[in-house]
Amino acid sequence: MVRVHHFAALALLLSGCFAPAPPGGALRCNPAGKACPDGYHCAADSTCWRDGEGPDLGTPDLGSEGGTAAQDLTSSEAGGPDLSTDDLGADDLAVDDLATDEDASLADDGLPADLAAPRDLPPPPDGAPEAGPSMDATPVDASSAADLAAPLDAGADACFEDNAACQGKTCGLAVSNCGKAVSCGTCIVPGACGGGGKPNLCGCTVDAAKACAGRTCGFAATGCGGVVGCGTCGLGLLCANGKCGMAGCNTMGCNAQKKNCGVISDGCDGRVDCGNCPLQQSCGGGGTANVCGCTPEDACFGKGCGSVTTSCGQLVSCGTCVAPQTCGGGLPGLCGCAPDNVAACLNKACGAAVNNCEQVVTCGTCTPPKICGGGGIVSQCGCTANNVAPCAGAGKNCGAVTNNCGTAISCGNCTLPALCGGGGPNVCGMNNCIGKSCAQQGKNCGTISNGCSTTMSCGACTLPDTCGGGGTPNVCGCNGNSAAVCLGKTCGTVTNACGRVISCGSCTMPQTCGGGGVPGACGCTPDNALACQNRTCGNVVNPCGQIVSCGTCVAPKTCGGAGTPGTCGCTVDPAACALFGYECGSAPNGCGGTVACGPCGGNLKCQGHLCMP
């Protein structure tokens, strides 16, 4: 059995494949050989990439002294182990020995940890913000990040999100082309944002030394959802609980170790597959390695109130509102208030009132000489007559005059031979009285005194003018009271009582006048359904400039995982057997299923995914 291991390992090493690892630049190989699985090629950086992918690093220098590729690979500069024949001892090349802290570790979805580690991304273009440290999707603090709901500038400076800020990123925060903070998603435990050493990418770094502390053989949990090989025992020795010895070893199954997912050590020198997790859960997702669980994402991102259901199926509260605001009163998921001005002005014809949102609104204006409350009734147009002021108060003692309400009244009669107007307009005297016409008195409407003993009509006004409407009694005029007609409004145009169009203000894009459902107020009603059209996951910017979530994916699916942006999916890796180093049986395909690794030939039997006598 040991000899079979030696030949398999030697063939693997001489082919240039130093350590089975996932694609995307993590599987090391010899550019001069054919060491990569089907569907991959050996790139110039000595790592395997999927066909059609990989960096252009130029032609690697395989030795200026004419040495072969195999010779160059014995040096530390080749990125692999020393392959000199002195190191290929009989006990050193067992397949288990090839499991390094990177090769034999498994990620939370059942694949090696390297498969969960994202590829390096090209550096950002000049002027673009540099990727910062690992940032999980924590709600943006208003004191440190741009207001995600702030409207965009209007006019020539308008900026529209191009949704490219998170391109090549799967977690943390990024800065959009409009300078806003954008959430690129969250990671599934045990993965963390930047955990694999790549900023803004989910990953998990395996610490083999820590995992194998106190063990000299067998396998140990990596903390990344898999196991790492800790070494093998010499001939005649058995591995028991991480130590080599002569005694036998009692293996422990998944139930005995209280594990229910992923691949774990059996307590000896083997491994056991504990299976996959149900929907809405992932392996280690609750914080315990190899135990199904779920850590909810920040489902309240972009919301300030109400309740939402997380990706784990939990109902959580996003906050409450303070009266008079209600949740959704302005925008969905945000505290606001929709004013009801009709109810506020019910049974009121004029003056001001306070609506349900504690805003002051106008209920109308009065036509002179009437004033609001002038008849003694609050919020109603009227006029309280003053018959003293136009007679005795003005020094008049005879004839007809008009009071403050436009009504003709008599100031009294004269005693003959005195005549009304003989002493002046509406004053008794001995002189003759010559009455003055409406035009002579500068009047053109209503009823006035002729200056003697009678009154006369000066005509009527044409709307929107009213008699005295401009502030001068018995003269046609109009007072639009523009300030009053715009009371309670911040935008749009209104027509005042004089028929003139008055502007109450304008809005800044993407807000429009009445866009939030409140007439005369700037706002924007987000069409999240349109923003998320043809998308089932990820974040987008809606027409109101707000970041909204189109949904989350259930592990092992990820947003865009099958190659379609905005759609949950998972791409099955056909090279899973080679990545695990399995010769037979089946290996996790990274999408919650398995891929067959083939039967063993001849008289060999499949033991621990390896063909053995």
Can you give a write-up of this model?
The strands form 21 sheets. The protein has a 3-stranded antiparallel β-sheet, with no helix packed on it. 7% of the residues lie in helices and 19% in strands. The protein has 613 residues and is mainly beta. Residues 1-23 and 57-157 have low confidence and may be disordered.
Helix content: under 10%
Total strand count, please? 43
What general outline do the C-alpha atoms trace? rod-shaped
Q: N-to-C terminal Cα separation, in Å?
A: 6 Å
What's the tally of helices?
A: 8
Q: How much of the polypeptide forms β-strand, as a percent range?
A: 15-25%
Mean pLDDT: 74
Low-confidence stretches: 1-23, 57-157
Structural class: mainly beta
The description of the largest β-sheet is: 3 strands, antiparallel
Oligomeric assembly: single chain
Using only C-alpha atoms, the radius of gyration works out to 44 Å
Strand order in the largest sheet: 1-3-2
